[in-house]
Amino acid sequence: MSDYKSIAARKQQHLESLIPTEWRLDSSQIPPGMLSPADSVTNVSSYESVNVTDIPRTCGLLSPNELRITEEYDVRSLLTEIHSKRLTSEEVVRAFCKRAAIAQQLTRCLTEPLFTQAIAQARTLDAHLQRTNKPFGPLHGLPVSIKDTFQVTSTDASSGYVALAFHPSSKNSDLVTLLHSLGAIIIAKTNVPQTVGALDSVNNLFGRTLNPLNRRLTVGGSTGGEAALLALRGSMVGFGTDIGGSVRIPPMCVGIYGFKPSVGRVPYGGQQEVGNVGVGRVSLQAVAGLIARSVQDLGAVMREIVPRAELFGEDCIPGTWGEVGNLTGKGGRLRVGVLRKDGLVEPHPPIARVLDEVAQILRRTPGVEVVEVPVPKALAKCQWLANKLLGVDGAGAIMDLIEKVNEPLIPWLKGRMRRGKVSTIADLGKLQAQRAEIEREMLRMWTLEGEGGDRSLHIDAIIHPVAPHPVPEPDRYNGVGYTSSWVLMDYPAGVVPVRKFGEDDLELGKEMSAPVKGSWDKANRALWNESTVDRRVYLDSPLSVQVITPKLHDYELYRAMQISDGAIRAGSKETAKL
Q: Any idea which residues are catalytic in this one (predicted)?
């Protein structure tokens, strides 16, 4: 039986060897409190409230041209520069690889640097463009990154398990194959939690990924490495997966954008799976999604993926991306519903406030109508059912893999992860019948019934909290039902940042007065009660909202996010003038 510590030490040494010496920060440039990867799993109390987002710009490792490449372009404008030959793929990819290396030294966001392969691919693309005068594909030269669970040939997909280190993949995931066909260049794989089933990106193999905005707060999970890398501009677009909120929670934690599509829009197949492969098809199905620094970047990439997805993934469906579907409600106006809570966990005052601020901004936006949405009774059933479906395999294979190398559970999973009973076909049938009943009830939230039983779409999109609390300290995330419920429903959902948590949001000396609704709500109060948390830790952290649309209305989600984001940015500028 191997010891997890020795395996982890070898893996970390291997990772470090893949970062060129000339790309390494001086120790004086790394803020104090950067614990060893092993210590970072449990010892987080020494981290200071340090924002490291300026260090790539000021450290001196990036040339003025590399700073320009990594900071001044969105996806479309960068592709225009590459395709018009004003920038080469190689210089673009090298700049992002170097910045990703810096991000790793500040946050531990990477698991597999693919720098050598990425630069070689960039040279091949440059030669193709010179020879043919045509881009290899619409994303020719675009530097992207992927969550560690996606497989890349000859590279580990350890997925937070020590036992899977030094077991390179023999194939590419379907999304990787699609990205290569589009000309995108994958520069790195990024960190995840142990089991990919926690809301902090920490494991015994690579340690804890830190939040670059504030090391005392979580970066979220399970796609936390991607969020940290994107926040430090070490990649243009990141790809992750979502079964409980994993491409929405990390963007919330660093103030960027996340997009969870419907099942079938982005290829998910070929993930590194543990246990009963394919169990997701009969329980709760995860989806692949995107993280980016703007809504426009999300749209630019989805525009190329969605029409091609069915050709690359057996789990994908035909689709188009453009002016299709119903985005405007009655009278040609976009009708946005405000869903203020989930019926189980009461949002903290600043979460309720920022949702109301966005609602007020949208009410002042031409062409937008805002309506209140009563909390559907069925919504309160979603988190319990999602949890039951997630546990149908009993976690036996997961625990076997962890115990194989004497690996301890990370803090967030202690008390949450254990061996359970494997569900029978009859059990699964009952759970899916309950799911269908909830889905039927939830339809009423979206539709309006007319005479003769005719139905029409009543609401185009909903705004809702991402979480019932601000970005918490490590290992304290709560209220996952605000994101997991929409996976159960298979509703597309995205995250839009709004503003920073300010002094007025603290409400020092004032506690929540609403009656506690249950154990989940009680745990959430501990993140606001002044006897159990110093609220000042939340200062300057990002506050965001979630945008949700009905099943398969993915393009409509993009447009609703675009409209909401534009209104929020315009509203922020008007406020700044006052």
A: 147 (charge relay system), 222 (charge relay system), 246 (acyl-ester intermediate)
Using DSSP's 3-state secondary structure scheme, residue 147 falls into: strand
- The CATH number for 280's domain is 3.90.1300.10
User: Distance between alpha carbon 396 and the CA centroid of its chain, in Å?
Assistant: 27
Q: Which residues, including other chains, have CB under 8 Å from residue 133's CB and lie 6 or more apart?
A: none
Helix (H) or strand (E) holding 397: helix 396-403
**C-alpha distances in angstroms, 438 versus 261, 378, 380, 424, 444?**
20, 6, 10, 21, 10
* Exposure class string for 394-431: b at 16+ Cβ within 10 A, else e: bbeebbebbeebebebbbbbeeebeeeeebeeeebeeb
Domain-located, residue 456: yes
The one catalytic residue among 11, 147, 189, 388: 147
Angle at 203 between CA 197 and CA 204, to 5 degrees: 140
425 within domain boundaries: yes
Q: Is residue 140 part of a domain?
A: yes
Where do runs of H (alpha helix) occur along 416-512?
425-446, 481-489
Q: Which two tokens stand for residue 395?
A: 């976690």
Q: How far, in Å, CA of 276 to CA of 151, rounded?
A: 18
**Marked catalytic residue, from 40, 158, 222, 283:** 222
Give the per-residue pLDDT at 66: 98
**pLDDT 10s digits, 525-558:** 999 999 999 999 999 999 999 999 999 999 999 9
**Quick check: helix, strand or coil at residue 479?**
coil
Q: What is this structure's pTM?
A: 0.97
**Is 260 an active-site residue?**
no
Candidates 18, 32, 34, 78; CA nearest to 233 is 78
DSSP annotation of 545: E
pLDDT tens column, 82-128 = 999 999 999 999 999 999 999 999 999 999 999 999 999 999 999 99
Q: Which of 159, 246, 541, 564 is catalytic?
A: 246
Secondary structure class of 259 (helix, strand, coil): strand
Q: How many residues does the chain have?
A: 578
261 part of a folded domain: yes
Rounded to an integer, what distance in angstroms lies between the CA atom of residue 387 and that of residue 277? 19
Paired tokens of 301: 């990439």
Residues in CB range of 330: below 8 A, 6 or more apart: none
246 is an active site residue? yes
Distance CA 315, CA 241 (A): 14
Q: Is the peptide bond before 222 cis (omega within 30 degrees of 0)?
A: yes
* Structural domain count, the chain: 1
